[in-house]
Design goal:
Layout (H helix, E strand, L loop, with lengths): L5 H19 L7 H13 L11 H11 L3 E4 L4 H10 L7 E4 L4 H10 L8 E4 L2 E4 L3 H9 L3
Parallel strand pairs: 1-2
Antiparallel strand pairs: 1-3, 3-4
Helix pairs in contact: 1-2, 4-6
Length: about 140
């Protein structure tokens, strides 16, 4: 779990150092803007923006029952953020699996991508799709199970 928070913590730390430097150089009014930018970047890169992750076995079980896709992702991945944001509210229908929290999920992604941990990898009807177009994933959500 700690690994998922490294990038957000580094962003907040960098923003704090920059703000402290601006305050020390007698320009405290300008310190608020970069601080806010770094905090927003930290939130976007944190696990908070994604629905709660489950483990790979549970995701496969749920997908078999409801027919919804399984998305393997990791924090800090810009393509995963793009997919999450473009799915909007329908992202809650997808089963999200963080490969940094689940070694079995990381192994499944490596098996699907020739040994690489390329994310997002979306499993639809048992077939892996690496970094698919968000519109295509949204279409898969609207298909009957």
């Amino acid at each position: 779990m700690m690994r998922a928070w490294i990038l957000p913590m580094l962003l907040v730390l960098c923003g704090s150092v920059l703000a402290a430097g601006l305050i020390a150089s007698e320009t405290p009014g300008t310190a608020a803007v970069p601080s806010l930018v770094f905090v927003l970047l930290a939130v976007v890169n944190s696990p908070l923006i994604f629905p709660r992750s489950i483990d790979a076995l549970e995701a496969q079980r749920r997908s078999a029952v409801d027919g919804q896709p399984v998305v393997f992702w990791r924090p800090g991945c810009t393509y995963c953020m793009r997919l999450r944001i473009r799915l909007g509210r329908s992202a809650r229908q997808v089963h999200w699996v963080d490969i940094w929290r689940d070694p079995a999920a990381a192994a499944a992604v490596r098996a699907a991508n020739g040994g690489n941990e390329t994310v997002p990898t979306v499993i639809v009807a048992g077939r892996p799709h690496t970094n698919p177009d968000p519109a295509w994933v949204r279409e898969q959500l609207s298909r009957p199970a």
